[in-house]
Write a structure and sequence with these properties.
alpha/beta, Rossmann fold, 2 domains, 4-stranded antiparallel β-sheet, 11 helices, 23% strand
């Protein structure tokens, strides 16, 4: 598979205090690093799953790759070409080739627009995409398993699964090479989750899409993603082939997430890793390894410096001074 997206040391920073607030509290940080030195690769036809707790920076990473969040530093290359960091360049052709399915499907659809108008909007912005927008809208609905009757419905007339399909159709309208799906199964019944995931898989095979899935649901990662990355406080602490990470997690945080994941295999009792303390806020990012205040394997060195990336045959990498054996 050929390389599609290559990201190196991506950083996203937001200001948190300024003007009078900064003058009144000089000890308060003036900015917060939401994404802090993330690197990843996605090939054509490949799926990468990004996993982590709420607030770890997963959605901000997705927004930055789509040009919807400010990039402070880092190198982002799409199909071998460098992508502009400027937010006002989000309508450039290279940005159009990356599509985003938002986390809240109904909330991302304008309640005043019909499905037909929502799906035809990309054709009005990018006139070269279709010479017959009405026909293209019906084709998109068919691609995602919806009949033409849905074209004249409003978002409040859609179920959660149907809204997901409309969001997917809208993303496909711009003919992307990479699809970023933010929590595509959140809030859906298990049967509907399976339908959405099967649809994504079928479209990936048909269109050759690269896919990045952001999810809390570890049960789906192993089955839909060849690669996975574990995110904690804006960093990837472990990433690699999904099968290797599930079978042999090396970072204690990864092992704790996997052990806490519900399983129907009652014959296998996972080894529990007890985490202590609370998740620190980004405004009080700990020195050294950010996980040290919760880690059962913490040593003095962990509190002083952040560990370099270690790797196993180039197929699995982790940032930990004292990884699991």
């Amino acid at each position: 598979m050929s390389e599609l997206l290559k990201v190196r040391d991506l950083r996203v920073r937001y200001p948190v205090a300024g003007g009078i607030a900064a003058m009144l509290d000089r000890n308060r940080p003036s900015y917060v690093d939401v994404v802090h030195g993330v690197s990843l690769d996605i090939a054509r036809g490949e799926t990468l799953a990004v996993v982590g707790e709420s607030g770890s920076g997963k959605t901000t990473l997705a927004m930055a790759l789509c040009g919807l969040a400010p990039v402070l530093a880092g190198d982002v290359r799409f199909d071998g070409a460098a992508m502009s960091k400027a937010r006002d360049q989000h309508l450039r052709p290279d940005r159009r080739r990356i599509a985003l399915m938002f986390q809240d499907p109904v909330g991302s659809l304008s309640p005043r627009m019909t499905v037909r108008r929502l799906l035809s909007e990309p054709f009005r912005i990018y006139s070269e995409l279709s010479q017959d927008p009405d026909r293209s809208v019906l084709e998109l609905l068919s691609m995602v398993g919806l009949s033409s009757d849905f074209a004249d419905r409003y978002p409040h007339q859609l179920s959660g699964g149907q809204a997901r399909r409309v969001c997917l159709a809208r993303a496909l309208a711009q003919k992307p090479d990479l699809l970023i799906a933010d929590e595509p199964t959140a809030g859906l019944d298990v049967s509907i989750q399976g339908e959405v995931l099967n649809l994504l898989s079928d479209l990936q095979q048909e269109l050759g899409l690269g896919i990045m899935i952001i999810t809390h649901n570890l049960n789906i990662v192993r089955h839909v993603a060849e690669q996975m990355a574990i995110m904690y406080l804006g960093r990837f602490v472990e990433q690699g082939l999904s099968e290797l990470v599930f079978q042999h997690p090396r970072h204690p945080y990864t092992a704790a997430l996997l052990a806490a994941n519900p399983s129907t295999n009652f014959d296998v009792v996972p080894e529990r890793i007890e985490l202590t303390g609370e998740i620190p806020g980004l405004l009080q990012r700990p020195a050294g390894c950010e996980f040290h205040n919760r880690c059962p394997r913490v040593q003095p060195k962990c509190r002083a410096s952040f560990p370099d990336r270690q790797s196993s045959n180039g197929k699995q990498g982790w940032n930990c001074f004292h990884p699991l054996p």
